[in-house]
Design goal:
It is a single chain. By secondary structure, the protein is of the alpha+beta class. The chain contains 5 helices and 15 strands. Strands 3, 5, 7, 8, 10, 12 and 14 form a 7-stranded antiparallel sheet that branches. A hairpin with a 2-residue loop joins strand 7 and strand 8.
Length: 341
């Protein structure tokens, strides 16, 4: 018996390959074969059954159920006077009612008559056609997003997955340049500010944005996305009755984060995760009359970025503060866009 040993890198490669295969099969959707449209209630069951019976009883000149007569057998029928090879058919003979007894149909005798307006439903002339006929998918890729995903500063959470890409059978390029556009909201929260910070201004600057394209949790490509707005300022306005140990909050929709991902390798079955990171720089401008220590405001303030904001997301109103820059929410539609060329 031969025993083969593999090193850690080979084991990792095998696990990655199997995991990619699992993801591909999990998200693979076979084409739908059943394309029937129900004829009910426009037609009754009796009408549909009648239409099928008429179709079954039609004589097919190419039928292989009965063997064809030989020349000698045809001549014998002619001599006996029962050969009907020269019978003329009426163009409207389908409208002539016929008793089932004339076609040896078992059961109670009923009248059969073809109704062309009644659809031929549940009639399978070839029972194996649906088993061997398939339609290949022309879809090149599938893109999945996590809606309204919260992303922390990189010093708190190194990376946050916000979308996945799966390459499908319809791909006809070895590499594709993608553009991923996601709407985003910035949230600012201050909790239990221990000083009277009335009139202080807080400015948040988003720096070092980075979108990582991950294959099996390893970055294969990093790009620098473009944010519509990177700076937000607000003025603290605590309630006069509770100016110490107060909390404030604000949200603002800033528009789009646009990432261009050049020449991403696209073998069939490959899946990628997209991870976004950034850092934040918070500056507090103090009101010399009231504020005592700006670090108390800064240390008690939390910033979050929310990506993949959908159309149902409602931006919360500011509490005990006013956003001074930008002066209004972005007018861009909350639509996620993913295109490849």
């Amino acid at each position: 018996m031969n025993i083969y040993m593999t090193d850690a890198s080979e084991n990792t490669l095998i696990c990655d390959t199997l995991n990619q295969r699992r993801i591909f099969l999990t998200n693979r959707q076979p084409p739908v074969r059943n394309e029937k449209v129900s004829p009910y209630p426009n037609f009754t069951r009796m009408q549909l059954d009648m239409r099928r019976k008429v179709e079954v009883l039609k004589y097919n000149k190419n039928s292989t159920q009965d063997r064809k007569l030989t020349a000698k057998e045809k001549q014998a029928q002619i001599l006996r006077g029962n050969y009907r090879g020269n019978v003329l058919f009426c163009a409207d003979d389908s409208s002539i009612p016929v008793k089932t007894s004339s076609s040896d149909v078992p059961g109670p005798i009923i009248t059969l008559q073809e109704e062309p307006d009644v659809p031929l439903y549940n009639y399978l002339p070839n029972r194996f056609a649906s088993a061997i006929t398939t339609t290949e998918s022309e879809e090149k890729w599938s893109f999945f997003v996590l809606p309204n995903i919260t992303i922390d500063d990189a010093t708190i959470t190194p990376s946050t997955n916000l979308a996945s890409l799966l390459i499908k059978e319809g791909i006809n390029q070895s590499s594709v340049t993608y553009e991923y556009i996601t709407p985003y909201v910035l949230t600012i929260e201050g909790n239990n500010i221990p000083i009277d910070a009335s009139g202080d201004s807080v400015t948040i600057l988003i720096t070092s944005p980075k979108l990582d394209v991950l294959y099996e949790n390893n970055s294969t490509l990093s790009v620098t996305p473009v944010l519509d707005v990177t700076s937000v300022s607000l003025k603290l306005e605590p309630d006069s009755s509770n100016s110490v140990d107060f909390s404030y909050s604000a949200q603002i929709y800033l528009g789009y984060i646009t990432s261009t991902i050049p020449n991403l390798s696209t073998p069939i079955g490959r899946s990628y995760n997209f991870s976004l990171t950034y850092t934040e720089n918070v500056t507090v401008f103090t009101d010399a009359v009231t504020s005592q220590n700006t670090s108390d405001v800064k240390n008690n303030t939390t910033i979050n970025l929310i990506a993949n904001v959908d159309t149902n997301y409602s931006v919360l109103a500011s509490s005990q503060c006013t956003i001074t820059n930008p002066t209004e929410q972005s007018s861009k539609s909350k639509i996620i866009t993913f295109n490849g060329t």
